[in-house]
Design goal:
The chain is mainly alpha-helical and 365 residues long. It has helices spanning 4-23, 26-29, 33-37, 47-50, 57-64, 73-97, 100-103, 106-113, 119-124, 130-142, 147-160, 168-181, 190-206, 214-224, 238-242, 245-250, 255-260, 262-281, 287-307, 311-331, 340-348. The two termini are 33 Å apart.
Length: 365
């Protein structure tokens, strides 16, 4: 029998090894490393190129500092992504370590660290900015010691990727619950909420790459990251940066397609609903607040599925948000005891592979 003292480190170690194998699977498969990474443009684009646009915060920092010119593009993106994933893993481990009721529940820790929708999914489905926005989510929930820091974190999250906007309902709901529990006023949330609103409006209304030809943009990106030029259809990021909300909705997953692949999407969809239901049901709040927690947890999955095609990716963001909410409620002393069935259900899903990329017909690759 493994002592509780060692269960969390062993689970974190197992998650790290599993994630590393998936992240560097090209070592075992023989597939070129550049082909397995997906889209790398977000590490090479900068606001100094064609002006302000969404999703360019990370790339601007890496480009203007010169870090993305230190080595070849493939080595660089894997190095940066590995650091991001390690930071997220260590941050989650540190947060759980501080919550005795969570760290002593080995089965729950197993369900979090070896979930098919958290670290093993992030390691497998590379080439996006999900890991950085999850880092900003955790920092906002657990490390923002004052309103100004919280404001900076939510703005950074929105500027990193606009999908962070759909984390905001859960962030501010949990912050509001923490304040009301201590009979404090909501004044500390005014500055962060205002900053988040302004940043969201700027990104949604003025975050497009406009008046720049695809030829000029892709020419720059091909020079900056030649190993990735033309590897996949959306290799340069031009569509992501220049598309309108309407164009994204038009490319979204139609209901007819969801129905056609209903047996493929069934398990992942059930999983995210189960996580949201368990977290909300066990919170020690009124039924109305439980409904709010349930809906805020599902917000990334439901909202993003309407405007973008990465159905499984949005499921994973909601699952990660659900687990973050669970730990946050534990920290507030507002989470009850999970039943054996609920824990078994969450652990059971860990027997599945990573939920996978955006193709509906290929879950659990």
């Amino acid at each position: 029998m493994i002592s509780r003292k060692y269960s969390l480190p062993l689970i974190v170690l197992a998650s790290s090894i599993y994630s590393a194998i998936l992240c560097y699977r090209w070592v075992f498969t023989g597939t070129p490393a550049a082909n397995t990474f997906g889209r790398a443009w977000q590490y090479f684009v900068s606001w100094s190129d064609f002006g302000f646009a969404r999703r360019e915060l990370i790339g601007t920092a890496l480009t203007e500092s010169g870090l993305n010119r230190l080595t070849d593009g493939v080595t660089f993106v894997y190095a940066v992504f590995s650091v991001e994933l390690l930071v997220l893993l260590c941050l989650v481990a540190r947060i759980i370590l501080e919550q005795e009721s969570v760290r002593n529940n080995a089965a729950l820790c197993f369900a979090i660290f070896l979930s098919p929708a958290t670290f093993v999914h992030f390691a497998y489905a590379q080439g996006n900015l999900d890991v950085p926005i999850c880092i900003f989510l955790l920092l906002a929930l657990f490390c923002a010691s004052n309103p100004w820091i919280l404001a900076m974190l939510v703005v950074a999250g929105v500027l990193t990727h606009e999908s962070f906007i759909f984390f905001l309902p859960a962030i501010f709901l949990l912050k509001l619950l923490a304040l009301s529990d201590r009979k404090q006023n909501i004044t500390p949330l005014v500055v962060p909420a205002t900053a988040a609103t302004i940043a969201s409006l700027i990104v949604v209304l003025g975050g497009r790459l406009e008046h720049v030809s695809q030829f000029a943009y892709e020419g720059l990106m091909a020079r900056r990251m030649p190993q990735f030029a033309g590897l996949i259809h959306l290799w340069s990021g031009y569509f992501e940066l220049s598309s309108t909300v309407g164009a994204n909705v038009a490319r979204g997953v139609p209901l007819s397609q969801l129905f056609a692949y209903r047996w493929y999407i069934l398990l992942p969809t059930v999983y995210v609903i189960v996580v949201a239901a368990v977290v909300s049901r066990r919170s020690k709040y009124s039924p109305l607040v439980q409904v709010a927690i349930f809906l805020s947890t599902l917000c990334p999955f439901v909202a993003l599925s309407v405007i973008a095609t990465d159905y499984y990716r949005w499921i994973c963001l909601s699952v990660f948000l659900g687990f973050a909410t669970l730990v946050c409620l534990h920290k507030q002393g507002k989470f009850g005891i999970l039943s054996r069935f609920e824990v078994a259900l969450l652990v059971g899903f860990c027997l599945l592979c990573p939920i996978g990329p955006d193709l509906l017909q290929t879950p659990f690759p």
